Task: inverse folding
């Protein structure tokens, strides 16, 4: 998917999308209840944000009785791919390796994570030979 097929979400939009990916379809009330557990945010703020996201095509909406149920228009993996591509292009001069090295160098990597990384590298080498 190209980044031109949708506008990348802002941080508040991404928070709403994360709730929807896990619990869709969902009402504004439900999304608000989930978000208020992590930060102070008003119901009308979420309502307005979701209405704007609907207008932008980021989320879909269906009416069920007196309420609207919202769902994400794009999958989590589609958004992750777009955000990843933008991050690599803009912050790491197009180098995924620089991003990986930066991420690994930021915190202490556990033995299990190193083993998982080594397994992934071994699999990549194996796949190259085939």
Result:
């Amino acid at each position: 998917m190209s980044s031109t097929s949708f506008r990348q979400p802002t941080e508040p939009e991404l928070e709403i999308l994360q709730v929807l990916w896990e619990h869709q379809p969902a009402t504004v009330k439900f999304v608000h209840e989930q978000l208020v557990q992590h930060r102070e945010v008003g119901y009308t703020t979420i309502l307005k944000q979701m209405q704007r996201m609907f207008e932008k095509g980021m989320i879909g909406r269906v009416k069920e009785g007196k309420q609207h149920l919202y769902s994400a228009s794009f999958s989590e993996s589609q958004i992750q791919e777009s955000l990843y591509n933008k991050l690599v292009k803009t912050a790491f001069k197009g180098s995924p390796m620089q991003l990986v090295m930066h991420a690994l160098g930021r915190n202490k990597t556990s033995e299990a994570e190193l083993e998982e990384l080594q397994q992934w590298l071994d699999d990549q080498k194996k796949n190259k030979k085939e």
